[in-house]
Design a protein that fits this description.
The protein has a seven-stranded parallel β-sheet, with helices on both faces. The mean pLDDT is 96. Strand 1, helix 1 and strand 2 form a beta-alpha-beta unit. The protein has 332 residues and is an alpha/beta fold. It has eleven helices and twelve strands. Bound molecules: nicotinamide-adenine-dinucleotide.
């Protein structure tokens, strides 16, 4: 099987590519992978170094918004797994233009090319944030979309476009929506790597609002295994939820990160809440469990300990990224 992985140099995409080429995902042995990635601030070719020498790997540096590049990359592929996106909520609140361009237009250009080339399957990777916020209970896949921040609005737009391609062009599209991912190789602007690297540097951590916002945490390896199940066996035209089963308030998460890094609450700065900050996300994962046999495997305690250990051991990976992005933390 030949697959095109967009955004394969980012956090989740690179895990998917490494796990695919190492044959760690069910039924992935022998898969040939082309990565298409623009290498934005969050894309890092070094994330793929561990598999760059393996047979079946090809890297194309390019933009999903460039039809000629996409045309060349899509030709001859059996499937596309589409991760490429602008992914950081705070950046989308500051400036949404690139989010609209990459997340919506980039997806449309890929869908066009996939239809033209008769690609067999298109997995569109999306997020629980498209539903907005839920105080109690969990969303099922038919819940109405009600995004509150520009990032989520552009992801909702791209989800709907992808599903429309299934209905109008018969493209074999499947949409996945997952909860908050964590793990190794995550760009250090997101909460877990930001807090861990600040703490490892003896610095402080910024906690939004009252710390009561709740998220479900999913280890990146569980997410990638679920995507592989959907790629192989999901039903065309369907949406599948992927969750991790560990719901925590941001305050609870912060306490665990402080403990894992040997720090205490005196390192926490309460900062003004994010505009439009969703209070709670929660996905019902019954469908993927019943249809495809998915269960998260990584216990949060184990995954978090491994993640902290990875950032502790890989300063040469994250120090230059933080410095370049202006994220270097003031020390206490
Ligand atoms: P990331 O920011 O780490 O990686 C995004 C990758 O896409 C980078 O390698 C970047 O260079 C590439 N890219 C961006 N614009 C591009 C373009 N125009 N053309 C080609 N490549 C481009 O993001 P991530 O956390 O790995 O997220 C991957 C996908 O998963 C996204 O679609 C995101 O919406 C979704 N998602 C992420 C999470 C999470 O917790 N991280 C949760 C739910 C869904």
């Amino acid at each position: 099987m030949r697959i095109l992985v967009t955004g394969g140099a980012g956090f989740i995409g690179s895990e998917f590519v490494r796990a695919t080429l190492r044959g760690e995902l069910p039924g992935a042995a022998g898969t040939r992978v082309t990565v298409l990635d623009k290498l934005t601030y969050s894309g890092n070719r070094a994330n793929l170094d561990p598999v760059a020498g393996l047979p079946g790997y090809r890297f194309v540096e390019g933009d999903t918004c460039d039809p000629a590049t996409v045309e060349e990359a899509v030709a001859g592929q059996d499937a596309i797994v589409h991760f490429a996106a602008e992914s950081h909520v705070d950046r989308s609140i500051d400036s949404a233009r690139q989010f609209v361009t990459t997340n919506v237009l980039g997806t449309q250009i890929l869908l066009e090319a996939a239809s033209r080339h008769g690609v067999g399957r298109f997995v569109h990777v999306s997020t629980d944030e498209v539903y907005g916020s839920i105080d109690h209970g969990s969303w099922t896949e038919d819940a109405p979309l009600s995004p509150n921040v520009p990032y989520a609005a552009t992801k909702a737009g791209s989800d709907l476009l992808a599903l429309a391609w299934h209905r109008t062009r018969g493209l074999d599209v499947v949409v996945t929506r997952c909860t908050n991912n964590y793990g190794h190789y995550q760009f250090p602007e997101k909460v877990i790597p930001l807090f861990v690297t600040n703490l490892l540097d003896g610095g402080r951590v910024p906690l939004y609002g009252d710390g009561g916002n709740r998220r479900d945490w999913l280890h990146v390896s569980d997410h990638c295994r679920a995507i592989q199940l959907v790629l192989r066996s999901g039903r065309g035209g369907e949406v599948y939820h992927i969750g991790g089963g560990t719901e925590l308030t941001n305050e609870e998460l912060t306490r665990r990160l402080l403990a894992a890094c040997g720090a205490d609450w005196s390192r926490v700065d309460h900062v003004q809440d994010r505009q439009g900050h969703d209070r709670r996300y929660s996905l019902d994962i019954t469908k993927i469990r019943d249809e495809l046999g998915y269960e998260p495997r990584v216990r949060f305690e184990d995954g978090l300990a491994a993640t902290v250990a990875w950032y502790r051991a890989n300063r040469p990976w994250w120090e230059p990224l933080k410095a370049k992005a202006g994220l270097a933390e003031v020390r206490v």
